Predict the 3D structure of the following.
Amino acid sequence: MSRRRLAVAALAIAAVAVVASATAAPPTERGPIAAAMWPKPAQLDGTVATYAGRGGIAAAMRPESAQRRGDPPRASGRVALREARRLTALGPRPAGSRAERRAHARVKRAFGRAGLRVAVQPFAVPGHGRSRNVIGTLDAPRRDCLKIAMAHIDTTAPGPGANDNASGVGVVVAIAARLRRIAPRCDVWLVATGAEERIFTGQGDHLGALALARRARARGAKRRLRFALSLDEVGRDRPFWLRSPAAAPRPRVERALLRAGRATGVGVSWVRDEGDSMSDHREFELLGLPAAKLGVGAGGEPCRHLACDTADRLDRRSLAQAQRLAEHALR
Ligand SMILES: [Zn+2]
C-alpha cells in the first residue's frame, strides 16, 4: 500500500471511530435534535433511520412498511381519544380507590368485547387496600414468543390524569378492538396496570408492574418475552422518546420498536433512562426481562400529576401515532 493510500485508510478508520464514539455517547446528548443534525450514526447502525432521509436504509426497509393483507385500516386515534376522555372523566384514580376500580372495570369490559381472554390479577397496596392488573390475552399460533403492551390506569391526585395516563390506556383499549385483525405472530398480553404512581403509593416499586412481571416470568417470559412496552404519556408532544435502561439498543427490543416507528412514519428516538426507570418497564428489567417505555418526548409533561392534566390537551394524532407504532411492533 502506498503512503498516500495508507493515509487515506487511516483517515477512514479515524472517521469510523468518530462516528462509533458518537453512537456510544450518552444518549442524553443524542436526543432527536442531535440525531437530526448528525444523521451519520443513524445511517450506520440503522436504529434511528427516521432521520436518515428517503434513500439508503429507509428504502431498504420499505417492504416492512407494506400493509399486509387483512390488516385493519390505519389507526385514526378516535377510539383511543374517546376512551382516554372517558377515563379522564372519572377524575383522579389513585391506587386502591373506587375510581381506579371503575376505570379497570371499563377496560375489562372492552377486552371482553374484543374477544380477548381476560384475567384480573389482584394485589395489595400497603395502606391503600387493593389494586389489580387487567390483562387481555390473545394466543397466537406460535407459542414460543410473547409481547406485552401495558399502560398504568392510576393517577396521583389532584390530577385527572389525561396524558398521565388515560392516554396510554386509551391506546391499549383501541388496540384490543383490532388485535384479532392484526393477527400477531406471538402471544400478546394487553394490560391496564394499577398502582404505578410511586409518589402516591410510597413504594419503591411500581406495584402493578411488579406483579405482572412476576406473572410473566412464571409463564416462561425468560425464554419467550420479546418486550414489554409501557405506553405512558402518549397523548401529546412528539416526536416520542423510547426509554429503557439498556446500555445500547437491543435488536429485538429497542431496535424492533424503532423499526416499527420508521415503518409507520412515527418519529421516535431512543433515550437511555438515567438513574431509575420511571414507568412500568422498570420492574421487568429488574427481573431480567426486556422492556421499554414509549412516552413524552423532549418537551416533557408540565402538567404531570397536576390538575391541569386535562382531556382537552390530548391530541388525537399523537394517540394515533402511538397506536400505529405499537400495533406494528405487536404483529
Ligand atoms: Zn405515568
User: Anything to note?
Assistant: The two ends are 51 Å apart (CA to CA). Residues 152, 164-165, 232-233, 279 surround zinc ion (CB under 6 Å). The first helix runs from residue 3 to 24.
